[in-house]
């Protein structure tokens, strides 16, 4: 990523695999940073810890989870707690994991962005959706978030926009890796995140080039992001939408994932940075503002030709 001032920021999208190729590394999991591991990968590692020659086969859902961790880190400045990791459970089965807080409770975020981040971090891999579905959802969120989502967290200073530098068309490219479905998703995600962050004083010290350690190279860049001292105040509005008596069309039905609650048969996400009257985008219910969550896509019942 290169800013208009020609400052470069390293974005680490991890390693990849080539279908059918023999493994080049040893161990159950491919090399990676633990906070980005999906719940299913960590469960596999624990269940097969005595079978070192049974490598885990990653799926696109693992990549979606890792992208959700990236978004959580960029928005809050901290990593979400590790996914379900049986090795952190005591012998007496007492759970010792830290409970993850929704990112909107740590930093003010557009509810649509927070909902998509939590969706990518879903415990059930099928609830995360595909990269293409999330890209479409991100495009919709960017188009419908409203002017409130464009306000910087700090009132002073200007916000720099980031852009992906592409190689010249005449530059030769070596082999084709196929469609990069996650790249458009990552680009939209970064656009939404930058809309919630003020990058006026974003600098990287040339003298701080030490090893990033086990947290990955993304940690150093996020540490430089200026965090707000106060949350953004919601815009005053006399409008109020009453909670519907039944689920909205396309709304998710129970059982609801963590951080969502069941209200009148539908799943809702509390907008913690807003308060009644909630305006024309959120619904009032028992002194709080809520946003509906969309239902996960249904799996295809027919085979592709």
Automatic annotation (TrEMBL):
Q: Which key words tag this protein in UniProt? A: ATP-binding, Kinase, Nucleotide-binding, Transferase
The Protein kinase domain sits at 1-141
Does the record's keyword annotation contain Iron?
A: no
UniProt KW ATP-binding keyword = yes
Which positions make up the signal peptide? none
Q: Where is this region: Disordered?
A: 143-172
SUPFAM superfamilies in the record: Protein kinase-like (PK-like) (SSF56112)
GO terms for molecular function, please? ATP binding; protein serine/threonine kinase activity
The enzyme's E.C. designation: 2.7.11.1
Q: Which branch of life, at top level?
A: Bacteria
- Identify the enzyme class: transferase
In Swiss-Prot or TrEMBL terms, this protein is called non-specific serine/threonine protein kinase
Q: Which organism is it from?
A: Stigmatella erecta
Q: What is the lineage of its organism?
A: Bacteria, Pseudomonadati, Myxococcota, Myxococcia, Myxococcales
């Amino acid at each position: 990523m290169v800013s208009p001032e020609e400052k470069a920021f390293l974005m680490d999208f991890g390693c990849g695999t080539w279908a059918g190729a023999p493994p080049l590394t040893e161990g159950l999991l491919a090399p990676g940073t633990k906070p980005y591991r999906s719940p299913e990968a960590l469960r596999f590692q624990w269940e097969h810890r005595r079978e070192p020659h049974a490598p885990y086969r990653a799926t696109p859902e693992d990549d979606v989870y890792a992208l959700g961790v990236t978004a959580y880190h960029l928005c809050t400045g901290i990593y979400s707690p590790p996914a379900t990791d049986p090795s952190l459970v005591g012998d007496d089965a007492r759970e010792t994991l830290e409970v993850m807080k929704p990112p909107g409770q740590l930093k003010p975020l557009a509810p649509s962005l927070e909902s998509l981040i939590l969706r990518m971090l879903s415990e059930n891999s099928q609830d995360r959706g595909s990269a293409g579905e999330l890209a479409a959802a991100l495009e919709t969120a960017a188009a419908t978030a409203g002017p409130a989502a464009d306000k910087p967290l700090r009132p002073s200073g200007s916000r720099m926009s980031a852009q992906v530098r592409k190689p010249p068309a005449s530059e030769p490219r070596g082999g084709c890796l196929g469609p990069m479905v996650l790249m458009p998703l990552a680009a939209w995600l970064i656009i939404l995140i930058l809309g919630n962050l003020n990058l006026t004083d974003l600098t990287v010290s040339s003298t701080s080039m030490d090893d990033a350690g086990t947290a990955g190279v993304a940690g150093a860049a996020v540490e430089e992001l200026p965090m707000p001292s106060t949350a953004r105040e919601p815009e005053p509005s006399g409008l109020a939408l009453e909670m519907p008596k039944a689920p909205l069309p396309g709304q998710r039905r129970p059982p609801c994932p963590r951080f969502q609650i069941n209200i009148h048969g539908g799943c809702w996400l509390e907008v913690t940075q807003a308060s009644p009257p909630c305006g024309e985008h959120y619904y009032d219910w028992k002194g709080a503002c809520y946003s509906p969550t969309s239902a996960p896509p249904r799996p295809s019942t027919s085979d592709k030709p």
